[in-house]
Amino acid sequence: MSPDRIRLHPGRPRTIRNKRGIAQAFSGPSTGLELRRATVFDVFQISRVLTRSITYLCAGDHHKDTALLAAWTGNKDPQTIRRWIQSGATLWLAEVDGVVAGVGGVRHGAELSLLYVDPAYVRRGIGLALLIRLEHELAGQGCTTAHLNATTTARAFYRRYGWLDVGAPTNWLGMPHYPMRKSLHPAAEGLRPAHPGDMSR
Predict the structure, then answer these.
(1) What span, in angstroms and rounded, lies between the C-alpha atoms of 92 and 114?
(2) How many Cα atoms are found within 13 Å in the side-chain-facing hemisphere of 117?
(3) Exposure pattern of 20-46 as b/e (b: 16+ CB <10 Å)?
(4) Model pLDDT for residues 168-188, shown as the tens digit of each residue
(5) Cβ neighbours of residue 159 under 8 Å, at least 6 residues apart?
């Protein structure tokens, strides 16, 4: 069973290991960073992070097209997010000094469903910390290979940390989505950044 709350200490190497034996180590990415499971009491902060991240960090995908942006963020309102959590969705939050700075989620069936960082907290290792947590969540469910669909904006980030392209991009709301996968088998030795210490998201 995964812990519901993980405290990451600044400057101290951190290793997360699950029952499948995957171990990944990295230095504490941000002062006061804590990872925890989301609850229905977090829906307003989650909605804020998702909307801000899509609006300001994913402009390379939506190109500031107001109709496209509205369609992408249309189901990121607090009421919909509350229904996600109540229906059993697994969402993890990254908090910095008590403020939600990033949101990640997985679905049963070995899928990483979302990963967003608030624009005010980019390049502090928050996206990486969440990615590691989500990969371990899936491995803890018995998944040996994880899947996701990456936006153009996020694709390089995932490739940097061991995710591979697996086919032609699909069309989602008029934007390309890139199917990707990553082995979660212990033999793969977990996540290996292309550059040691790279905390670019």
Answers:
(1) 10
(2) 22
(3) bebebebebbbeebbbbbbeeebbebb
(4) 999 999 999 999 999 997 645
(5) 165, 180
DSSP assignment of 1-22: ---SEEEE-TTSEEEEE-TT--
Amino acid occupying residue 31: T
Strands 23-27, 33-37: pairing is unpaired
Q: Name residue 38's beta-bridge partners.
A: none
Q: Are 130 and 35 in contact (CB under 8 A)?
A: yes
pTM: 0.81
85, 91 in Cβ contact below 8 A?
yes
Structure tokens at 4: 């519901």
Asked if 78 and 191 touch (Cβ cutoff 8 Å), the reply is no
What's the whole-number mean pLDDT along residues 154-173?
A: 96
Question: Using alpha carbons only, what angle is made at residue 117 by residues 145 and 21, rounded to the nearest 5 degrees?
Answer: 30
Residue keyed to tokens 């403020």: 99
At residue 113's C-alpha, the angle toward residues 100 and 85, to 5°, is 60
Tokens of 178: 């890139």
> Which amino acid belongs to residue 128?
L
Q: Give me 164's structure tokens.
A: 């591979």
Q: How many CB atoms lie within 10 A of CB 3?
A: 12
